[in-house]
Amino acid sequence: MRPASSRSPRLRPAYLAALCCALFALFTWQVAAEGPLRAADERLGRALFRTAPDAVTQPLADLGAMAVAPPVLGLVAAWVVWRHRRWWHAAWALAAMAAVPAVVAPLKALIARPGPLEPGTGWYPSGHTATAMVAYVGAALLLHPHTRRRWPLPVAAGLSLATGIGLVLRGYHWPLDVLGSWCLFGAVLVLLDRAVGGPLSSRGRRRSSARTPGC
């Protein structure tokens, strides 16, 4: 029987994915049921909208546009296939990108949340937030096994964060629209990390092998 210490690092990504799913379920329930969390979210949103110049927030929001973010992932995926022949890693990352419209569009139609400043419904969860997160973080995860540099993942996280902040401050989305997308696709990216040998899974394997007894 394996010691518990050798199993625990492998379970940590699963715990993280489960936490993301639980938070997404909580946010979605509160938004759909018009609960107290939604009311607090809308109060916070109204206090934040247009508190920064549009000349700053619009470019940040545009980081999640389909013409901006997915090409970054596509270029990195093509490089991984060409340089390292890891076509299955590229396929997993592109599948995660394809999951964004496949998952977000039905949720938007089902929940039909009104927008903060724009007319119509269908604002939860945020598609631009999900697109940015999967494209930028997915590209960093693809690069991880092939570089010793640590900057890609912090840069990707910063771009994802900047997109969400821009969307809220510009008045395109309520804060929970952004948080819901981060949680939902955070779980997807944990799975992608494991599929491509990203930092979570590789750290777990290193710790596990270091703690395994030699006899």
Annotate the secondary structure layout:
Layout: H1 4-33, H2 36-48, H3 54-62, H4 69-84, H5 87-111, H6 127-143, H7 152-170, H8 175-196, H9 199-211
Helix pairs in contact: 1-8, 1-9, 3-7, 4-5, 4-6, 5-6, 5-8, 6-7, 6-8
Explain what you see.
- The structure is a single chain.
- The protein has 215 residues and is an all-alpha fold.
- 76% of the residues lie in helices and 0% in strands.
- It has nine helices and no strands.
- Helix 3 packs across helix 7.
- It is globular, with a radius of gyration of 19 Å.
Short description:
This protein has helices spanning 4-33, 36-48, 54-62, 69-84, 87-111, 127-143, 152-170, 175-196, 199-211.
User: Percent helix among the residues?
Assistant: over 70%
Characterize the overall form.
globular
Largest β sheet strand count, sense and barrel closure: none
Instruction: Briefly note the structural class of the backbone.
Output: mainly alpha
Number of continuous helical runs: 9
Radius of gyration: 19 Å
* Tally of strands: 0
Looking at this protein, list some descriptive labels.
215 residues; mainly alpha; 76% helix; disordered C terminus
